[in-house]
Automatic annotation (TrEMBL):
It comes from the Bacteria. This is DNA-binding PadR family transcriptional regulator. Keywords: DNA-binding. It comes from Streptomyces griseomycini. Residues 7-80 form the Transcription regulator PadR N-terminal domain. InterPro entries: Tscrpt_reg_PadR_C, Tscrpt_reg_PadR_N, WH-like_DNA-bd_sf, WH_DNA-bd_sf. GO terms for molecular function: DNA binding. Residues 92-178 form the Transcription regulator PadR C-terminal domain.
Length: 189
């Protein structure tokens, strides 16, 4: 998927400035796509130049005017064309998994702190996803009933939650294995 498609989806959900879009990427769009502020601004400029986006200047008091982006008809057509194209199933490139396999040729216990670091990162991400789900979809303040767009946002988030739960469980298994191997190692105490 190109960053352009993620931007089109986000701006169709709600027009906004580059700053607002970057914030969405840090929050909800970050469930499935990440981008830096610099990448977002660079792509916004290119998409504006290609006629995919409409831009209007929004005056601000005491600050420079901001640009608010929305999707132009050619942008909507580009997204529609992309939505109708088949997508290849993704392959996962997992450097940590290669390190775990490679640890058979060194000291497997040396990876414990690295696996713990990964587990914490995935556990923290899972907690953020669950907090976002409660806030935006399942909690008492979430709008009812959810419209089509919100239903689809929620199903993507549920996929992220399931992935993070699976990853944390796998990392727990890896840690159990590494600790067991360390205990079985000759000279282990």
């Amino acid at each position: 998927m190109a960053l352009e498609h993620a931007i089109l989806v986000s701006l169709l959900e709600k027009p906004g400035s580059g700053y607002e879009l970057a914030h969405r990427f840090e929050r909800s769009i970050g469930y499935f796509w990440t981008a830096t502020h610099q990448q977002i601004y660079r792509v916004l400029g290119r998409m504006e130049g290609d006629g995919l986006l409409d831009v209007r200047e929004v005056p601000q008091q005491g600050r420079p005017d901001k640009k608010e982006y929305s999707v132009a008809a050619p942008g909507r057509a580009a997204l529609s064309a992309w939505l109708h194209q088949p997508v290849e199933p993704e392959s996962i490139r997992h450097e940590l998994a290669v390190k775990i396999r490679g640890a058979a040729f060194d000291d497997p216990a040396a990876l414990i702190s690295e696996v713990e670091r990964h587990r914490k990162a995935h556990s923290d991400r899972l907690a953020r996803y669950l907090t976002g789900e409660q806030r935006d979809f399942t909690g008492p303040e979430a709008p009812r009933p959810l419209d089509t767009g919100r239903e689809l946002q929620h199903v993507v988030l549920r996929g992220g939650i399931a992935f993070e739960r699976m990853t944390v469980a796998w990392l727990d298994d890896v840690l159990d294995t590494l600790h067991r191997l360390r205990a079985e190692r000759p000279g282990a105490t």
